[in-house]
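Q: Two folds, back to back.
A: First:
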Amino acid sequence: MENNNTRVAIIAANGGMFDAYKVFNIATAAAASDKEVGIFFTFEGLNLIHKEAHKNLAMPEGKEHFKEGFEKTNVPSISELLEMAQEMGVKMIGCQMTMDVMNLEKDDFVEGIEVGGAASFIEFAKDADISLTF
């Protein structure tokens, strides 16, 4: 029997193209399965929700052929996956400490994110059934 109260906690600490696909693919799949999903974006992971940076994430060197494969198989772009996650109610928390260190403001990020410290994410994650880090 499916547990509809399942909670998925994801830490996004890396900010490349593959990292974004991992984070948003897992998050949207979990949300589509009626899981409660929260993502904590810290350090380079903030690139995944930055208004401009998420549109220009680097493909790992030597993996450029994936771009053609993504397009050929109609894999959604990172911008589309981010929008899907938002529409599905995925909770997104930008790390306040990292934002302070990098001199970034909430306005530098896509609409709808929360800003909080590690304690905010721990409060969400303490009851998580699944915890992942990318």
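A: Second:
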Amino acid sequence: MAKTKSDLLQGTLDLLILKTLALAPMHGWGITQRIQQMSQDVLQVNQGSLYPALVRLEQQGWIEAEWGTSDNNRQAKYYSLTRAGRKQLKEEQENWKRLSTAIELVLQTN
């Protein structure tokens, strides 16, 4: 699970990674930086959570990886979304919307 300023629900990290990779292929450090940037510094994913998630997503066939050269001229593994990953992202987004709506309903109840 990701370490954040507030802990994420289990499975949320997978959703965030899939969404991030839907924007563009990137290496692990880039994924963590993009998530932090898009969340306005609320979410901070540590490497100990990120890399096991990337391995799991790759084993499920939702992402694929290939070696490339990073901006600082180092070899890095670049991850990209597969067709199955795009389908899974859509399902995960729908599930998240359903869950967040249900939680909001509970919180609004007096």
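Q: And?
A: The chain has one domain: 12-108.
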